[in-house]
Amino acid sequence: MDDFERSIPKKIGAWQASGKDQLYNRETLYDYMDGGAEVYLAFDFRQVWVRKYAGPGGGGLTLDIYDMGSPGEAFGIFSCDREDPGAGIGQGSEYGFGLLRFHQGRFFVTVMTADEDEASGKAVLDVGRAAVKALGSPGPGPDIVGFLPRESLRPDRTSYFHGNVNLNNRYFVASENILGLDRSTDCAFAEYETASDKPGYLLLVRYAGAERAIAARRSFLSSYAPEAGPEGLAQTENKKWVSAVVRDRYLIIVFESPSPDWARKLGSSVGLPAK
Amino acid sequence: MTHPLTRRDFLKGTTAALLGASLGFGQNSPAVNKTRVILVRHRDVLDENSAINPDVLQEMLDEAVMKIFDESDPVKAFGKMVKPGETVGIKTNVWSYLPTPRELETAIKRRLLDAGIAEDRIGLDDHTVRTNPLFINATSLINARPLRTHYLSGMSGCIKNYIMFAESQPALHPDSCADLGSLFKLPIVKGKTRLNILCALTPQFHGRGPHHFSRRYVWSYKGLIIGQDPVAVDTIGLRLIMAKRREVLGKDQELPPVPKHIQLADTRHGIGVSDINAIELVKLGWNEDILV
Questions:
Q1: Left, alpha or beta for A22 (phi > 0: left; psi -120 to 50: alpha)?
Q2: CA distances, B282 to each of A66, B32, B41, B175 (Å)
Q3: Which domains does chain A have, with CATH numbers?
Q4: N or C terminus of chain A: which is more exposed, having fewer CB within 10 Å?
C-alpha cells in the first residue's frame, strides 16, 4: 500500500490531493472511524490507506483503500452493504448519493463526497477509475458463495461475512448471538425470488466442525422457533416458514419461505462439497 | 440467558414492550414521579440549505430548559443546574459527518455565562475529555450530541456520548455496546450531568458506507430532545429513529440492530429511566411530522 502514494495520481481532472496520505491498521482503525471500525475488524482487515482530494469549488472527497487480506474478504465487506446501481469499476461496484464502493483483488475501495453537486459526483467516479488501475488483478470470491443454489437467486443481494454484527445489519435475526457466529465462521446470506413480491432468504453457515453446527441449530431453534419439530420447520407470525437443518458442518436456515416445501427444496439444493 | 429479542418479536408486535418503548403514553398521562423529557421543534431553525438560525435555536434551548425547571426565565432555569464558581464541561461530539452544531454549543455556553459561570471555567471537548483539566475539575457537565444510528450499538445518543470518558473504548463494544450505561458511574462523570441534549435537527435514521453515514438517511426534523435523565432522553430518541425507519424502510427494519444499551442503562446500571410509561414527554413548538 506504500506504493499508492506514487501509483495513484495526485491530480485527477481538476481535483488535487490535499493533506498527507494516511494509513491505519487494526489497532489504529478506531482513530479513523467512529461507528464503523467493527465492521472491518469482523473481517480479515489489514490496513486502510486514505487520501483526500480537494475540488476547484471548495468541495472535497475521500478515497479509502482497504487491504482486506484476500479477494474473498474484499468481496465480503463489499457485499454486506449494497443498495445502488453498479458503476462498472473493479470486480463489483455501486454508486449512489456521492458514495462509490467497489472491490478489486484483495482491496475494497470507497470514494465519498459530502457535496451534492454533479461535478463532485463525477469526480468520485473519476477517482475510482484512477485508483482501480493501481490495485492489480481480480481475484476469486469466497467458495461458500458458490454452494448457493442458482435458481431464482438475486446475485447482487448475496452477502458474505463472518460475524453476528454483519448478519444483524443485513437481516436482523436476534439481539443475542444465537448462532454462535465469530471470525471462524463463514456465512453466505442470499435472497431468492418467490411467487410473491417478497423474497425468501437463505443463510448458509460453515462451522469448524459438525458439533458446532448441531449446537448452533439447537440454539437457533430454541430461541427463534421453539415450536419446530424434528425437521426444524416452523410457521412464523407472518404466515411464512422458517427451517433449519444441518449437513455435515454446515447449518442451512431458510427464512421467509412461502411454504414448507419451498424451504425444503431450497435447503436441499445447497451444493455442498463432497467430504 | 433471558429470551433474546428476535425478528419474530417484531412480527408479534412485542418489540416495543421489550425495548421499554410501549405505545400509549402521552402528555395527558399523569406526570407524578415521571422523568420529564422535552421535545422542542421549530420550523424555522433550519433554512432550505439546512443552515441553522442561531437565534431560533437559542429560543428552542431556552424554552426546553425553562419547561424542565418550570421557570419563566432561561437564565434562572440554567441557574438551577449550575452555580457561579463552578467549572462546567460541555461534552460535545465532533464526528465530522454529523457533529454537535457549533450554534448549539454557543447557545449552551451563552446561558452558562449568563448563569454566572466564568468563561475560563467552561470546557468544550470531545476526544480529550479524559485529560482536559476543565473536565477533570468539572463539577457539572452538559451532555450534547446529535441523534443517529450506530452500526454496533444501534443508536448513538446521550449515553454513548460519554464513551470518550472511558479508558478503553473497544472494551465497551461487546454485545452491542450493552454496558455503555456504566460510563455514568466513572468518577470523572458520576453525579455531574445536569442536562442531556439530543440534537435532532437533522437526525440520521440509518447508516451505511465506510463511516456509517449517508446523506440519504438524514432528514430535517428540526428538533431538540432535552432532559436531565440521559436514559429517558435516549429512549425518546430511539422512538423517533424507529418511527422514521418504519416510515421509510418498513416495519421489518424498524429497529436499528440492536440498541439494548438504553434499556440496560436502566435495568443493569440504574442511571435513568427507560420505561416509557415513567417518562413525561412534553412537546413544544412545531408539530408537523412529529412522529413521536
A1: beta
A2: 46, 14, 11, 33
A3: 4-132 (3.40.1000), 143-268 (no CATH)
A4: C
CA distance A209 to A199: 30
> CA of B8, closest CA in chain A: separation in Å?
7
State the helix-helix crossing angle for B54-69 and B102-114, rounded to 10 degrees: 50
> Hey, what's the cell of B30?
399523569
- What b/e sequence results for B235-261 when a residue is b if at least 16 CB atoms lie within 10 Å of its CB, and e otherwise? bbbbbbbbbbbbeeeeebbbbbbbbbb
Dihedral (CA of B60, B62, B65, B67) sign: negative
User: A110: nearest CA in chain B?
Assistant: B210
Beta carbons of B209 and A34 less than 8 Å apart: no
At B124, which amino acid appears? Answer: L
pTM: 0.86
Query: Are B156 and A35 a contacting pair at CB < 8 A?
Result: yes
Cβ–Cβ of A99/B209 closer than 8 Å?
A: yes
Cell numbers given for B78: 440554567
| Interface ipTM above 0.90 | no
Radius of gyration of chain B (CA): 18
B129-182 residue pLDDT tens: 999 999 999 999 999 999 999 988 899 999 999 999 999 988 898 888 999 999
Which pLDDT band holds residue A189 (cuts at 50, 70, 90)? Answer: very high
